[in-house]
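Re-run with default settings, no changes from the original entry. Doing this only to confirm the output is reproducible before filing.
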Amino acid sequence: MIEIVRNIRTRRVSTKLLPQSFWFQLAFRCPRVDRMDVEGDESRLVALPDSCRLPAVADLDGTPPWVDVWAGWNPRGLGLCFHARGVHKDQLTPGKSGVVASVVVLIDTRDTRDLSRASRHCHRFMVEMGFKGGRVLEARVVQKPIARATSDAPIAPRDKTTARGWLAEGGWRLDLLFQAEALHGFDPETNRRLGLAYRVSDQIRDDQYLAVGREFPVEENPSLWSTLELVD
């Protein structure tokens, strides 16, 4: 379900020079999932119900999305699942670095929609995936600084950010688990709103974003991110 928090333009937009999501502040429900881990399935790190599925904002511009995304939370952290569809393993050609697909996740634990420069509560995580063997994709998580930030978020302990990639039917899948200690300022008892943005890339398709994309400096401007509302 997409909630339009505020229409930032009063007139109907008749041009497609800008993505339709630019004209709104978007908020998405992020349900609480007390147990996100998976038992007996080595290909999964996080299991989220369909109620955690985020809407396909690309549909606003008539662009068919190629990635489905789920988001869930509990007091111990935040889980995200990405499932890319419509590509066969043989089409995933590694680049020079051996990467076949990558995901950038941006999280603001204060949802500072009125600031255009990142603060110490804003995090940027880069996940790169390459072939490892069988159906397993080696997924590496690295925290990166955000350009033009007023201050950088503390570097998360490596054991507090976990990723698992897998070749799924008709595509690939990536599960991410950010423990609370990895997200500076994560405190659902006092704040139930997070800023969120992402960019998903592979070798054969245009990048997919949560809302606005490469037309804007999404990866350095948290006011362009969407809102996750942590609900029970």
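The radius of gyration is 17 Å. The chain is about 0% helix and 40% strand.
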